[in-house]
Design goal:
There is one protein chain. By secondary structure, this protein is α/β, with parallel strands linked by helices. It has a single domain, classed as TIM Barrel (Alpha-Beta Barrel). Helices cover 38% and strands 15% of the residues. The chain has ten helices and eleven strands. The strands form three sheets. Strands 3-4-5-8-9-10-11 form a seven-stranded parallel sheet, covered by helices on one side. A two-stranded antiparallel ribbon has the order 1-2. Strands 6-7 form a two-stranded antiparallel ribbon. Helix 3 crosses helix 4. The longest helix is centred in the middle third of the chain and has 15 residues. The relative contact order is 0.14. The structure holds NADP nicotinamide-adenine-dinucleotide phosphate.
Length: 293
């Protein structure tokens, strides 16, 4: 049995994916802009992920922009059967590396074609609509126009499944009246738990939840309680953070990012780590401590 199998699978669209996948954002240059320092190293990370059994990779054409997708194509095309590449649309990059909304039907259509071309695909398996009503977190407001535009591209056969990113429960519910929603991708981790109720609700409805920044993002998680649990279990803090997410809810599918093969292997080993109830109780204090700072 592949070590990764211990993480289990979850339905994403109409494919079962391993609950421990890979997020490719770290493969672009600093600030997710421009090329990486070492392109061969980026290619090696992707190949190591797939060879280890990863069958879910998260990306976007606005990483780089274009560069992350081009590296995925260079490393992995022709793609293995069963590999699910999830991309996202809704933003574009300014010349100064800023993140700008790109939610008009014309921009979304262009983004879908750009993703198809740069990834070398005829159809995108899952496309997340990234709400840019707020850049740093979900903001209420209608997503009807951009979601309807994506649904039309789905009907034209360019997209198999649609997901939502950086959204509220209300936006998910409204979205489900327009098209099926295969997954939600929001900011969530041990220290940032605003989506606790949303995750439970999506689990009841069989919708996958992919937390972004599962390790804390650009500033990886640091906490005394987390370090203490990791030391007790003979694991790294990052492995504990991932194992905690796997145990948090069965609909959570992980896309931790790294630019290093060594970190990738450490992260994938979290599939084997089972956290005892005492450790879970200690880890439950991390979010409260983070909120009080
Ligand atoms: N929908 C959205 O708005 C959105 C936003 C952000 C991200 N995402 C997606 O979510 C994915 C994951 O987020 P992320 O990559 O930003 O953050 P992350 O997975 O929380 O953390 C990545 C950071 O942790 C470090 N790291 C990874 N493994 C490590 C290890 N074993 N030991 C020590 N440090 C480690 C990485 O540095 P090294 O490279 O040095 O390992 C990097 O700095 C992205 O790849 C992207 O696909 C989506």
């Amino acid at each position: 049995m592949n070590a990764l199998d211990q993480a289990g699978n979850y339905r994403l669209g109409n494919r079962d994916v391993c609950r421990l996948g890979y997020g490719a954002m770290q493969l672009a240059g600093p600030g997710v802009f421009g090329p990486p320092k070492d392109r061969a190293a980026a290619v090696a990370v992707l190949r190591a992920a797939v060879e280890s059994g990863v069958n879910h990779i998260d990306t976007s054409d606005f990483y780089g922009p274009h560069i992350t997708n081009q590296i995925i194509r260079e490393a992995l095309h022709p793609y293995r059967d069963g590999l699910v590449i999830v991309t996202k649309v809704g933003a574009r990059r300014g010349a100064d590396a800023s993140w700008l909304p790109a939610l008009s039907p014309a921009e979304l259509t262009q983004a879908v074609h750009d993703n198809l071309r740069h990834l070398g695909l005829d159809v995108l398996e899952v496309v997340n609509l990234r709400s840019m009503l707020g850049i740093h977190g979900p903001v209420e407001g209608s997503l009807e126009e951009p979601l309807s535009a994506l649904a039309e591209l789905q009907q034209r056969g360019l997209i198999r499944h649609i997901g939502l990113s950086n959204v509220t429960l209300r936006q998910v519910e409204d979205g489900r009246r327009i098209c099926d929603i295969a997954c939600v991708q929001n900011h969530y981790n041990l220290a940032h738990r605003s989506d606790d109720a949303l995750i439970d609700r999506l689990a009841r409805d069989g919708i996958a939840y992919a937390p972004f920044f599962p390790l804390g993002g650009f500033t990886p998680l640091q906490s005394t309680a987390l370090s203490a649990v990791a030391a007790e279990l003979g694991a790294t803090a990052m492995q504990v953070a991932l194992a905690w997410l796997l145990q948090r809810s069965p609909n959570i599918v992980l896309i931790p990012g790294t630019s290093s093969v060594e970190h990738l292997r450490q992260n994938l080993s979290a599939a084997r780590l089972k956290l005892p109830s005492q450790a879970l109780a200690t880890l439950d204090t991390v979010a409260a401590a983070a909120a009080s700072h």
